[in-house]
Design goal:
Layout (H helix, E strand, L loop, with lengths): L25 H7 L1 E3 L4 E3 L9 E4 L2 E3 L1 H9 L7 E5 L12 E5 H9 L1 H4 L14 E4 L2 E4 H24 L1
Antiparallel strand pairs: 1-2, 3-4, 5-6, 7-8
The protein binds zinc ion (2 copies).
Length: 163
């Protein structure tokens, strides 16, 4: 007799370990799409701001929640996972903290204030920070940008003189 996969009712997921051997498990497919750096583990698969991971035809999960459940355990009912690193596509459970939605909203509003460095790792100290359009910017990054521009301008000038 041929034993096909059970046609599962909605919400039913097969217990781990009893997948037919030939199939690649969701876990395996998941980790292939994660780029682990020494800090954040970035989801490189599809989806929007947080990404999306299809477990089967009926079940799609947010990657960071999936990773947390795999490595830590079930997320307590009603709680959301806050990204302590502020990278919405990071799935490193060490960077995730289960909190209430209310707390999450409160934190989201103060993200700009709690960030301690820019995306390139320069500290947001008083002297390294300027504000533009209501947001915080990094002076070191700006200086580097300006240096790059002026180097390019110099190179252009030199090439004109040389020709
Ligand atoms: Zn992270
Ligand atoms: Zn910077």
């Amino acid at each position: 007799m041929h034993l096909g996969l059970p046609t599962s009712p909605e919400g039913f997921s097969m217990p781990r370990g009893i997948h037919p051997r030939k199939r690649v498990s969701p876990e395996e497919r998941f980790w292939v799409k994660v780029n682990k750096t020494h800090t954040c583990w970035f989801w490189t698969g599809g989806g929007g701001r947080y990404g999306a991971f299809r477990i089967d035809t009926e079940l799609t999960k947010v990657p960071h929640r999936f990773a947390y459940e795999l490595l830590i355990g079930p997320i307590p009912e009603g709680l959301v996972l806050d990204h302590l690193c502020h990278n919405t596509r990071c799935v490193n459970p060490k960077h995730l903290q289960p909190i209430t939605q209310a707390e999450n909203n409160k934190r989201a509003n103060s993200v700009a204030k709690t960030m301690i460095h820019c995306k390139r790792g320069h500290p947001y100290t008083l002297f390294n920070t300027y504000f533009k359009d209501g947001r915080r910017h990094c002076r070191l990054c700006r200086a580097e940008r300006q240096r790059r521009y002026s180097q390019e301008a110099l190179a252009r000038t030199l090439s004109l003189i040389g020709s």
